[in-house]
């Protein structure tokens, strides 16, 4: 019954070639959403999972970037802002999102092996990672920089407050998100004005270079290192041992650069490339390096994860922000609420580091909370109350994935 409920959400959000995160709030295809959705779809509809990823990569730019939105031409132009007319980039946006796609491609292949699928997407994934390594190394340290908070996937994270304070907000636009979500759950008008200003400036630069916001995000880079490890496994499957070795070396370089540049005492912090300063906020992005199996500082990071700032295993999911911080907000988007995708990723990291009991508790909580809240977009980590959209794509998809691993959620 639980599997049927989760699969029904993905059926309801299916457009025919891709899945929307939410029929109302997010009526197009989003990049990292589709990767997580494919991970769940592989259990109930593996052909659709392959189609999901192939559709996304059909919109890949010539420079290798995978755009963060692929617009659905059948959706009214005014249903979402900023829409295709704003971006002036055909049927896509010009921003990106975290590179979780190689891991998704590998998972989909594992569920129903398809060498042609792997061979088709492998060069596209290589080009995507090459774009990040070359076009986005703003600090010259081997780390990819994001040029907009939306690129982190964690739009209004308190980590971005400092860099965003330099940006003059745009005005005169209409926020479509507030027509479908409570204002108290969404980014503030001032933050949104800054998002629009940054997107406008980046568009007007021809989607190149770095503006006022240039940040090395530990979550984004941890996912890049993990994606390189996944790409190594794909290369091995395609009988490309030299390429596989290159991907593993690339993952090791990113991990080393993260530890040298973003680690400080007990946590991974984002770094403002403009000032060179680490941004002092403890956010869930700093926990994602747990995905890396050879992480030397894993014991210290696990201590922070289970300590008072995140209370992993004693709250619902993984709080997106430090529970002890004055800026913690249990209901406002990425300023405190727990998200299913972060919980799923952190659970993977716990398994890598032998924390099986804690991973089991986290997995069970993610499933219970998703089912109880009708697959809410995000939840209050203290009460488990649902916030944002319901029937949310990646919440349902990752619930499917966890339910397919009963030993992990018992």
- The overall strand count is 9
Instruction: Kindly estimate the percentage of residues that lie in beta strands according to DSSP.
Output: under 5%
Element order: H for helix, E for strand: HEHHEHHHEHHHEHHEEEHHHEEHH
Report the total helices.
16
Query: Can you tell me the residue ranges where pLDDT is under 50 for at least 5 consecutive residues?
Result: none
**What is the overall silhouette?**
globular
As a whole number of angstroms, the C-alpha radius of gyration is: 19 Å
Widest beta sheet: strand line-up: 3-4-7
**Secondary-structure content class:** mainly alpha
Major sheet: size, sense and barrel closure?
Answer: 3 strands, antiparallel
Task: Summarize the SSE layout with pairings.
Layout: H1 2-12, E1 29-30, H2 31-44, H3 46-57, E2 69-70, H4 84-87, H5 101-111, H6 115-135, E3 145-146, H7 149-152, H8 161-164, H9 189-204, E4 215-216, H10 218-237, H11 241-261, E5 263-264, E6 267-268, E7 271-272, H12 298-306, H13 340-352, H14 356-372, E8 378-379, E9 386-387, H15 393-403, H16 406-409
Helix pairs in contact: 1-15, 2-3, 2-5, 2-15, 3-5, 5-6, 5-10, 6-10, 10-11, 13-14, 14-15
Q: Could you list some keywords that capture this structure?
A:
single chain, 410 residues, mainly alpha, 3-stranded antiparallel β-sheet, two-stranded antiparallel ribbon, 16 helices, 47% helix, globular
Written description of the protein model:
This protein is mainly α and 410 residues long. 47% of the residues lie in helices and 4% in strands. The chain contains 16 helices and nine strands. The chain has helices at 2-12, 31-44, 46-57, 84-87, 101-111, 115-135, 149-152, 161-164, 189-204, 218-237, 241-261, 298-306, 340-352, 356-372, 393-403, 406-409; strands at 29-30, 69-70, 145-146, 215-216, 263-264, 267-268, 271-272, 378-379, 386-387. It has a three-stranded antiparallel beta sheet. A two-stranded antiparallel ribbon has the order 1-2. The longest helix is centred in the first third of the chain and has 21 residues, at 115-135. The chain is globular. The two termini are 16 Å apart. 55% of the residues are buried. The mean pLDDT is 96.
